[in-house]
# Entry
Amino acid sequence: MLEVQRIFKTYEGKLLLNDISFGVEAGETVCVLGASGSGKSTLLRIIAGLEEADSGHISFNDQDLTSTPPHLRDFGLVFQDYALFPHLTVNDNVAFGLKMRHMSQEQISQRVANSLELVNLSGFEKRAVTDLSGGEQQRVALARALATSPRLLMFDEPLGALDRTLREDLLNELRAILHQTNIPAIYVTHDQEEAFTIADRVLIIYKGEIIREGTPADVWANPESAWVAGFLGLGNVMEGKFASKSLVETAIGKFSVHCTYKHQKGDKVHLLVRPLSAEKEANVLRGGVKDVIFQQDRFKVTLDNGLYVYLKEAPKIGKRIAVRVRVECLA
# Structure
C-alpha cells in the first residue's frame, strides 16, 4: 500500500502543493484529476522520486521511500510522450528495464512476450517503434512498464496525444489490464471522462489541495463545491441567497432546495441546476430558446438567461419553454 503523507511543495515562491495526503490500496486505481497547473504532475514526480518535496513522506508497505532514489522504488511510469528509445525495436524497448536488472535472457524473453501479449502487441517484437502509430507506441510504453512487475504503476496524461476514438479504446483496455494484473495505480489527467472511466477513486486537486475525494459515482452525484461542479460540467452553477430554510433567491427566480449544509437566512450560496429534465421535481426553469445544438442522442438547449438544459426534441429558436429541473445546494 502506498501512503502519501502531508506533502508540501513550493515553486518560484508560490505554494504548489499544500498538505497533500492520500493512500492507494492493493489493486486500486486512484485518479488525480485537475486543471493544468494544479500541481498534479508535480505530485506524481514526487511520488516517483524524480522531484523532492519541501516536506512530507512517501511510504510503501510501511517502508519510508522519501530518500529512496527512483530506480530503487520499483515503480513503473508511463508518460504522454511515450519516452521510448527511437533507435531500438519494440522488443529492446520493453526489455530495457529488465536488462538493467541483469536478468537472464530466458527471463527477459518470457517477460517481454507476456507484456506484449497483455497489450495486444504479440508479433511486434522486431518492429521499429518509429514505424508504429501513436496508440501502438503507447502500448509499447505500457508493456515496458509492466515487464518489470512494478509494485505501483503511475500514468501522467498517458492518452493526451491520441485522438478521441483511440483514446477511448485504449482506456478501456488499460482498465482491463490493471484489473487483470491487480497492480495499484495512480493516473493523472485533466480529462474527467478519462478519470471517471478508469478510476476506482477520484482525487480532485485545485490550487494544490485535494478538495473532493470519492468514488466516481459519489463525486458525480455529490460534487459538494461550486468549483468541482463547474469543472466536471455537471450543469448550471449560479449564485443565490437563502430566503428561508428551503428557499433560495437567484437572479432568475426562486428555487426550492433541500440543503444539508448549515446555511442561515441571508447567506450567499451556490446552486447546481442539473440540465436533465426531471418531471417529478418542483423547480421549473423558464426562458426563451437562444440556441439548439445536437449532441449524440439529445439536444443542448441554451436559454436567453444563459442557462442550458438537455431535451430529447429540439424546440424552435425564440420559443419560450418551461422545464422541470433538479436544483442542488452546494457548499
